Amino acid sequence: MDVYEAIVSKRDTRDFTPDPVSDEDLRKILQAGRMAGSAKNQQLNRIVVVTDASDRARLAECGRFSDWIPSVPVVLVIVVPKEGGKGFDIGRMAQNMMVAAKGLGLASCPVTFHHEDCVRELLGFPEDHEAPMGVGIGHPAPPKEKRQSAPRIPLDELVDWDRWQA
Ligand SMILES: Cc1cc2nc3c(=O)[nH]c(=O)nc-3n(C[C@H](O)[C@H](O)[C@H](O)COP(=O)(O)O)c2cc1C
Question: DSSP labels for 82-104?
Answer without folding.
Answer: TTT--HHHHHHHHHHHHHHHHHT
